[in-house]
């Protein structure tokens, strides 16, 4: 082959080698998705280099030989550009494995047609030698597939450039610079090629200026990449950083217009569709002026804002971070969103638990003090009485006269011990509730029988009303302790000669059991303490002692059995305790 160099060929060959060398160097520095622009640049290098060699050839066969080699780059370039655009902008093709192979289908088919053109002349109908210019050039008569190749190449270039423009038209200034350069790289050579195709830009017949436009454009892009680290942080990497953040991120420019955001931020908006590039903050936060103020202040601040999602109120922590340029001028604001509803609830729960723990410790100290007195007094009194009787210091008649008082004291000790054991069990290891169907009439009657003797000693009558055919579902031991405490408490605070009324009312799915006494009543202050579950002690009408532990157990056991407690009282008239218990149907076997 004879090579005769000319300025046009030499320019193409040198610029191709320069762009090719820079492309290989850049390819070693950037990551896989950005590396596709390197493949595009190398494709233009192949195109330009072999077109330069074609311009040195002197015969048609030689020119066609170099033409077939240059078509490797000419066809690979638009496909590489489109793949670069898809990967650079982070388009998700994970569920469409066919996308990238299909992009290269037409270029591969076209290259096969170029190689076999002499069989069918689909690409070139005919070729001849143009000798009217300063050096020989290849003349061509275009075949039908030549137009197809031009069409899909233009589509690939335009589509890739549009994808880049659409993704970053509202991006920050760094990505805007990249986008503008890439749009220039996509459109400028195409404009030159269009002028060539319409024969509007030809220094002389047969010379294609398109490879020059591509090579000079990409030489400029290569210098920009190396000089400004243009792809040091590619958008895909930036996207991955944002997307792994669980906090919502929205970035605004100096006009309060959204220029970037991550998908997590949409979880913090009742209407996520409002969050899109280019939207103004005033439009998104029109009903939340505190956020607009946060942006306008242009200072680092943290606020809490309440918002409703599906009828439920959530608390968001919003942090504003100013974005400054190299001159320390605020060019935008970044808002970070975090849902702290659960955190606030946990903190409130911890505060409540801390308060309850303190109350429990106070109650424990109080109980130990009371128990040491209330248990110690009666037990030591019985011990001393036995000791005096054994030594003959007290006669049998005197012992028998003291026995009723001793018996009464021991009744209170027994109730105290029972409550103490139940409370200790519930606090140390919890209570295992074993609900069963119970005959409420039988249960109340048995408790009345147990407490009748204490009532008789105070001339108090216990009345039972409305318990016929009443069945409940509850833990038997717990319900017995509830009834025993309520009735004994009513006896304790009743006036001698009065009565205690224990009644029942059917409420449909619940049984409402009330214990009413006609005694001194409870003051408003103490009634409020009872309704809040705060323990306190008072002495009964006959100076009976107490610990306040019984009512605590009553409240706890009722809740564990799915019921509720209500208390009403009037000073000087009496008190009424009412509990609700889940109703049960009478077992068939017992009908």
Automatic annotation (TrEMBL):
Keyword Transmembrane helix: yes
Record PROSITE patterns: HIS_KIN, PAC
EC number: 2.7.13.3
One annotated GO molecular function: phosphorelay sensor kinase activity
Reaction equations catalysed: ATP + protein L-histidine = ADP + protein N-phospho-L-histidine
All residue ranges annotated as the PAC domain in the record: 296-352
Cross-referenced SMART domains: HATPase_c
Keywords recorded for this protein, A-Z: Kinase, Membrane, Phosphoprotein, Transferase, Transmembrane, Transmembrane helix
Top-level EC class: transferase
Signal sequence, start to end: none
PANTHER family referenced in this protein's UniProt entry, alphabetically: HYBRID SIGNAL TRANSDUCTION HISTIDINE KINASE C (PTHR43547:SF2), TWO-COMPONENT HISTIDINE KINASE (PTHR43547)
UniProt protein name: histidine kinase
Native source species: Algoriphagus lacus
């Amino acid at each position: 082959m004879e090579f005769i160099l000319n300025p046009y060929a030499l320019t193409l060959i040198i610029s191709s080698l320069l762009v090719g060398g820079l492309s290989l160097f850049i390819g070693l520095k950037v990551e896989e998705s950005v590396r596709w622009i390197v493949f595009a640049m190398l494709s233009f290098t192949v195109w330009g280099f072999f077109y330069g060699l074609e311009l040195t050839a002197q015969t048609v066969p030689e020119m066609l030989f170099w033409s077939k080699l240059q078509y490797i780059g000419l066809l690979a370039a638009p496909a590489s550009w489109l793949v670069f655009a898809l990967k650079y902008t982070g388009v998700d093709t994970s569920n469409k494995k066919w996308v990238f192979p299909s992009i290269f289908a037409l270029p591969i088919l076209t290259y096969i047609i170029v190689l076999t053109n002499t069989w069918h002349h689909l690409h070139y109908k005919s070729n001849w030698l143009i000798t009217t210019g300063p050096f020989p050039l290849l003349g061509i008569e275009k075949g039908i597939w030549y137009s197809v190749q031009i069409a899909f190449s233009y589509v690939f270039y335009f589509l890739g450039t549009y994808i880049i423009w659409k993704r970053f038209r509202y991006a920050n200034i760094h990505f805007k610079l990249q986008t503008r350069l890439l749009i220039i790289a996509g459109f400028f050579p195409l404009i030159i090629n269009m002028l060539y195709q319409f024969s509007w830009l030809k220094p002389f017949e047969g010379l294609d200026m398109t490879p020059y436009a591509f090579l000079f454009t990409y030489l400029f892009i290569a210098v920009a990449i190396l000089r400004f680290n243009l792809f040091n942080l590619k958008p895909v990497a930036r996207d991955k950083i944002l997307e792994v953040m669980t906090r919502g991120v929205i970035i605004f420019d100096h006009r309060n217009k959204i220029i970037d955001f991550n998908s997590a931020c949409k979880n913090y908006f009742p209407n996520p569709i409002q969050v899109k590039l280019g939207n103004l903050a005033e439009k998104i936060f029109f009903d939340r002026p505190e956020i607009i103020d946060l942006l306008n202040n242009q200072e680092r601040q943290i606020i809490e804002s309440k918002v409703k999602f599906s009828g439920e109120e959530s608390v968001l922590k919003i942090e504003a971070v100013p974005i400054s340029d190299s001159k320390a001028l605020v060019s935008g604001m970044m808002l970070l969103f975090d849902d702290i509803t659960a955190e606030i609830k946990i903190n409130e729960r911890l505060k409540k638990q801390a308060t309850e723990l303190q109350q429990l410790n106070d109650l424990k100290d109080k109980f130990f003090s009371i128990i040491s007195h209330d248990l110690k007094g009666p037990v030591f009194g019985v011990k001393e009485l036995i000791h005096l009787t054994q030594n003959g210091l007290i006669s049998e008649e005197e012992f028998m006269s003291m026995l009723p008082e001793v018996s009464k004291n021991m009744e209170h000790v027994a109730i105290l011990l029972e409550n103490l054991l139940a409370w200790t069990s519930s606090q140390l290891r919890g209570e295992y509730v074993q609900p069963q169907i119970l005959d409420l009439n039988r249960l109340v009657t048995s408790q009345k029988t147990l407490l009748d003797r204490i009532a008789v000693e105070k001339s108090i009558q216990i009345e039972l009303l409305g318990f016929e055919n009443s069945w409940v579902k509850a833990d038997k031991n717990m319900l017995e302790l509830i009834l025993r405490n309520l009735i004994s408490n009513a006896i304790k605070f009743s006036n001698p000669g009065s009565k205690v009324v224990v009644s029942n009312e059917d409420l449909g799915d619940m049984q409402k059991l009330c214990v009413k006494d006609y005694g001194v009543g409870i003051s408003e202050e103490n009634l409020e303490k009872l309704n809040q579950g705060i323990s306190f002690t008072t002495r009964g009408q006959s100076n009976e002692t107490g610990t306040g532990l019984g009512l605590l157990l009553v409240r706890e056991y009722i809740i564990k059995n799915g019921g509720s407690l209500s208390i009403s009282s009037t000073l000087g008239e009496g008190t009424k305790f009412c509990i609700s218990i889940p109703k049960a149907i009478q077992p068939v076997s017992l009908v």
